[in-house]
């Protein structure tokens, strides 16, 4: 008999992408092989995101599209994993009774066992929901993670999972639980193993990655400095940081870990209004955030910044919104991920959604147009300069070009002989708000 096949569709953040690789590794150790499409698989898993209502509803829309496949192949095991699974639990079966199992964010260990039982015809396993907040995901052996053969250009490495903050809008503490950290020695062993298989860049992950503190008290700063000394690793990044944990000690360590630590930091601000930040329970105000940006730039003048912004948070006034626009101008972010406020169940702000949808979307459009202008202006600083690009692959829009990212996380497209995983010097000849275009520098 041929080996059973699985298919995983993933939505959401880098952590979800890495979780999919862990689930893949767990299934493959139980004899499964990966399918290219859902209709080729014996097991279909939706690895989900619930950070916003729209992301959650995409999952149920996809389940609706999969229902005919389940009717044609009743033996197909259909499961929901990840954040929506953790949030909704058994309620998923009420809305989509054709789903077979639900596995939460930190119950990875039970996945292959439950799948095997379902495929063996164990009726007691059907409609089973395992949403216990164990440490399966954070303790998952890194040797069992499914990595692309040949050594990927870049690899994600989880160092902390969960969040101890209680931001009024955020569902992460519910879907991911409280913080739990890996031993730094185990993290470094994984980084060395990745370097040995050809990985050039690692990105350390956590819902609040700069809260990392291992059982021996070692912090993200200690990890960055130690990782910067590992041969073969050319670049390091970390995401996502909370401004409250951006300490002086971490800033010093970041400067020490340069140049391997990339000159880009994603530091979500959420709002430029101190009044709104207090309502959000963010633990800092506008001036405190700007002061940390200034201290980071004093240590690393070339550091580029990205951020997240929520528009239309409950009680946000026009004045609050204008303060957010001004903060974007003051910091001059290279990247901004902006969203309208989306109430999430069980959060403190869920019942306070008092800004009309039209107002939210008008403000979002204004903010995105404003930020595009900032990014167009910032892009001009790269013209004529040589930047180092880690090549990711062919440009999907133009197969005659290669694409990759600079250390500042800017997308760079260029022509010339190259290959994935190479570090190339590219001279920038054109800049837009969202990408750079160049040519291989002479002598590169």
Structure characteristics:
OB fold (Dihydrolipoamide Acetyltransferase, E2P); 19 strands; alpha/beta; pyruvate-formate lyase- activating enzyme; single chain; 444 residues; Rossmann fold; five-stranded mixed β-barrel; globular
Describe the secondary structure blueprint for this structure.
Blueprint: E1 5-10, H1 14-28, E2 33-34, E3 43-48, H2 53-72, E4 77-82, H3 83-88, H4 91-95, E5 101-103, H5 111-119, E6 128-130, E7 154-158, E8 160-161, H6 172-176, E9 180-181, H7 184-196, E10 201-205, H8 220-227, E11 235-239, H9 248-257, E12 264-266, H10 274-280, H11 286-299, E13 304-311, H12 318-331, E14 335-340, H13 357-379, E15 386-395, E16 398-406, E17 411-415, E18 423-431, E19 435-440
Parallel strand pairs: 1-2, 1-3, 3-4, 4-5, 5-6, 7-10, 10-11, 12-13, 13-14, 17-19
Antiparallel strand pairs: 8-9, 15-16, 15-18, 16-17, 18-19
Structure notes:
- The chain is of the alpha/beta class.
- It folds into three domains: 5-130, Methylthiotransferase, N-terminal domain (Rossmann fold, 3-Layer(aba) Sandwich); 152-380, Alpha-Beta Horseshoe (pyruvate-formate lyase- activating enzyme), CATH 3.80.30.20; 383-440, Nucleic acid-binding proteins (OB fold (Dihydrolipoamide Acetyltransferase, E2P)).
- The chain is 34% helix and 23% strand.
- The protein has 13 helices and 19 strands.
- A six-stranded parallel beta sheet has the order 2-1-3-4-5-6, sandwiched between helices. Strands 15-16-17-19-18 form a five-stranded mixed beta barrel.
């Amino acid at each position: 008999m041929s080996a059973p096949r699985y298919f995983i569709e993933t939505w959401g953040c880098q952590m979800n992408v890495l979780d999919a690789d862990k689930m893949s590794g767990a299934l493959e150790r139980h004899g499964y092989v990966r399918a290219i499409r859902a209709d080729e698989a014996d097991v279909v898993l939706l690895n989900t995101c619930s950070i916003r209502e729209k992301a959650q509803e995409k999952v149920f829309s996809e389940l609706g599209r999969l229902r005919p496949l389940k009717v044609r192949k009743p033996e197909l095991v259909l499961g929901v994993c990840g954040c929506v699974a953790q949030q909704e639990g058994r309620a998923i079966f009420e809305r989509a009774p054709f789903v077979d199992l639900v596995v939460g964010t930190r119950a990875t260990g039970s996945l292959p066992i439950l799948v095997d039982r379902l495929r063996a015809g164990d009726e007691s396993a059907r409609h089973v929901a395992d949403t216990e907040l164990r440490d399966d995901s954070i303790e998952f052996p890194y040797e069992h993670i499914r990595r692309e053969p040949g050594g990927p250009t870049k690899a994600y490495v989880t160092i902390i999972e969960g969040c101890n903050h209680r931001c009024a809008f955020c569902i992460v503490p519910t879907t991911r639980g409280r913080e739990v950290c890996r031993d730094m020695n185990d993290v470094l062993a994984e980084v060395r193993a990745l370097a040995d298989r050809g990985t050039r860049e690692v990105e350390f992950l956590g819902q609040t990655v700069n809260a990392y503190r291992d059982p021996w008290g070692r912090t993200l700063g200690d990890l960055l400095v130690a990782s910067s000394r590992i041969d073969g690793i050319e670049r390091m990044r970390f995401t996502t940081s909370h401004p409250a944990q951006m300490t002086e000690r971490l800033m010093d360590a970041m400067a020490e870990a340069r140049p391997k630590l990339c000159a880009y930091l994603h530091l979500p601000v959420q709002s430029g209004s101190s009044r709104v930040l207090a309502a959000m329970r963010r633990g800092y105000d506008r001036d405190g955030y700007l002061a940390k940006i200034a201290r980071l730039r004093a240590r690393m003048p070339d550091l580029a910044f990205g951020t997240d912004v929520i528009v239309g948070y409950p009680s946000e006034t026009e004045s609050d919104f204008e303060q957010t626009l001004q903060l974007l101008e003051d910091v001059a972010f290279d990247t901004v991920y902006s969203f309208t406020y989306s109430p999430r169940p069980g959060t403190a702000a869920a019942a306070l959604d008092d800004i009309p949808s039209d107002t939210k979307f008008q403000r979002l459009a204004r903010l995105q147009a404003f930020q595009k202008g900032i990014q167009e202006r910032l892009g001009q600083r790269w013209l004529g300069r040589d930047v180092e690009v880690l090549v990711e692959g062919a440009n999907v829009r133009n197969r005659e070009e290669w694409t990759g990212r600079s250390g500042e996380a800017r997308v760079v497209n260029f022509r010339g002989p190259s290959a994935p995983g190479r570090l190339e010097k590219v001279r920038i000849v054109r800049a837009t708000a969202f990408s750079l275009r160049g040519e291989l520098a002479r002598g590169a």
